[in-house]
Amino acid sequence: MSFERIDVQTFKQRLDEGWEPFVLDVRGASEADLVSFDFVDHLHPHSSITEIAADLPKDREIVIHCRSGARSAMACMQLAGLGFGQLYNLEGGILAWAREIDPSMPTY
Fold first, then answer.
1. Catalytic position from the list 66, 87, 94, 98
2. Is 66 among the residues known to form the active site?
3. Which of 14, 32, 60, 99 could tie 36 with a disulfide, CB 3.0–4.6 Å?
């Protein structure tokens, strides 16, 4: 596999320990308007992720998330195909975060 998977528990722990990856949300703007992480660096739909590839950092780890993990996995594959390393797919996406980390977050 050309990217790693990271579960929400591990992601939260690493953030709490000071990890500062670039966080890419690959949902649509209307979804982000419903609920979003306050630590997202960029929002761009997965369907056109290659359009912003040149703007993404190649010298930082990148965590990609969506609602449930499927679209972010597709974005990881596309970016890996463009030569990006240090990619992480947030398993379960924002739904897993709401379920396991912050139950006060709205889900959709």
1. 66
2. yes
3. 32
